[in-house]
Amino acid sequence: xxxxxxxxxxxxxxxxxxxxxxxxxxxxxxxxxxxxxxxxxxxxxxxxxxxxxxxxxxxxxxxxxxxxxxxxxxxxxxxxxxxxxxxxxxxxxxxxxxxxxxxxxxxxxxx
Amino acid sequence: xxxxxxxxxxxxxxxxxxxxxxxxxxxxxxxxxxxxxxxxxxxxxxxxxxxxxxxxxxxxxxxxxxxxxxxxxxxxxxxxxxxxxxxxxxxxxxxxxxxxxxxxxxxxxxxxxxxxx
Lengths: 111, 117
What we know:
Distance between the termini of chain B: 32 Å
Shape of chain B: globular
Helix content of chain B: under 10%
Oligomer: heterodimer
Helix content of chain A: under 10%
């Protein structure tokens, strides 16, 4: 079993829709959580950090449930430019900041 | 440039050849990471440097993989006697932070796309 699990998708949604991605992690010692975005043939870019209290950045909302070891990302009013792969990422205690990535969830927003 | 720079962007080599991939991190960034990303997968950790010290090389898949950062700036990932399974995108990332500050964001380069024939 992979340490970070995501549904690979693809999620095909119309412009303006709300879409949610979920992720689970297996290591209860994980201490930091992130969502990265990766466009085709490009490098991963940090979208947002994820905090236990939940956090929002414009149309994007991230939630963390430590008890269930579950992370989510909600995208409201999706745009064509949101089409990308969304990577769920964790960092574990004592691992010198190395990031552990899920396989990513592919999102395709259509007209 | 202001970002992480990697070269070459693309590398094609015959099985058995040695290759060297270069990473130029953001100026002043203490931490440098190498990741390997296979097609359809997320990046997987290879190794980590804090300045010139290689503090974690637990992700290197075999002793054919070697990384160095002799002056605490530019890093080179070398793969000896390449195999077809080494074909992947090799990503370099750097961050300001030291070991204890795990929330420093990592900034990635464009990667080197390695194809072994």
